[in-house]
Amino acid sequence: MSSRVCGKPIGSMAFALAARNSKPVRQALITGPLARAYSARPPSSASESGREPAGRSKATIHTIKKLYRENKPIAMMTAYDYPTAVACEHAGIDLVLVGDSLAMVALGHEDTSQITMDEMLHHSRAVARGTRSGFIVSDLPFGTYHTDESTAVANAIRMIKEGRAEAVKLEAGRRAAPRIDAIVNGAGIPVVGHIGLTPQTAVSLGGFRVQGKSVTAAQALIDDALALQDAGCFAIVLEAMPSLVAETITRLLNIPTIGIGAGPHTSGQVLVYSDMMGIFDRFTPKFCRRFANLAPQMEGALAQYKNDVRARTFPQEGIHTYAMPPAAEENWRRHVQQIYGLELGESGENAAGSIAHTVKSVKSAAKENGSSS
């Protein structure tokens, strides 16, 4: 920032023993906030949904301005659906951006210009359902604000009403100032600007290239930033520009700057979730730091799942299954044997008992081997 900017996992056998022999533990495992009976069942409370507030009040524009005044860097992160929004919520992210980068990292498009307004609304609503305290900013996609002020305002209103966003972001320079003014002062909708590398119009920039590398180009970025501030933007994203240029813009403005590939001197930072988590398969921008590398773990987990299904080691009776009451189970076995001539395998508590017996046998054998040695 510049001086200007005011126990170890429970094994499956042990789990079965606990489920059979310790009723209080079993009850806690079933009703705890992290383990619902099945994911499609609606939660019965905010606590069970895992969406308890992250120990903070709802973020607003005033929250962002306060962070800016106190020279505290602002954390923005992209989110594209309910799970990514919940992750941002639990991490205490300040600004949650429903970025049109989801066109590439979530929908597989070649660039961001191909996503539609309806698709952005769909994803924005999903993020809103997972966000309780973060401030939601949603991108207006390419072609939804470029033609005239009335179209820009109409689509911004849709994003607030239908997408449940709290602000919109536009990739545009000084030429879009009248449209931004109409959205902010005409419709009362907060706007975040975006200058530098603007992916929606990367073709006109010669591709995904760093901007502002010459004195003339850097001055043009400053002119854009000042025009967007005057038009009413409450923050501006600075993407892919020299750190020195981003610092200059940050020190000249009276509103926060959020950098992405713009160095450490901006008022805050933003990254694409899929990039920083290591789950986008095409490329990782130079400016992105991978805070995790989840792709190998995800692929490994999926491979293990496939192997366990093939080997019939998942699901396990008594651990991942539901049981009938003992009397009903006995009657059902008798009914099936008499009607269909089938002898069913063990299930429920019988299977848990078998697993418990196996655990006891293994422990006894290990103890005997230890004594003999």
UniProtKB/TrEMBL annotation:
One GO CC term on file: mitochondrion
GO molecular function annotation: 3-methyl-2-oxobutanoate hydroxymethyltransferase activity; magnesium ion binding
Keyword Transmembrane: no
Classification via Gene3D superfamilies: Phosphoenolpyruvate-binding domains
The keyword Transferase belongs to this UniProt entry's keyword annotation: yes
GO BP term (any one): pantothenate biosynthetic process
Domain of life of the native organism: Eukaryota
Annotated TM spans: none
CDD domains, sorted: KPHMT-like (cd06557)
Record keywords: Pantothenate biosynthesis, Transferase
Biased composition (Low complexity): 38-48
Region listing for Disordered, in residue ranges: 38-59
Reaction(s) the record says it catalyses: (6R)-5,10-methylene-5,6,7,8-tetrahydrofolate + 3-methyl-2-oxobutanoate + H2O = 2-dehydropantoate + (6S)-5,6,7,8-tetrahydrofolate
Pathway terms, separated by semicolons: Cofactor biosynthesis; (R)-pantothenate biosynthesis; (R)-pantoate from 3-methyl-2-oxobutanoate: step 1/2
EC number: 2.1.2.11
PANTHER family in the record: 3-METHYL-2-OXOBUTANOATE HYDROXYMETHYLTRANSFERASE
Function, as annotated: Catalyzes the reversible reaction in which hydroxymethyl group from 5,10-methylenetetrahydrofolate is transferred onto alpha-ketoisovalerate to form ketopantoate.
Similarity annotation: Belongs to the PanB family.
Name used for this protein in its record: 3-methyl-2-oxobutanoate hydroxymethyltransferase
Source organism per UniProt: Coemansia asiatica
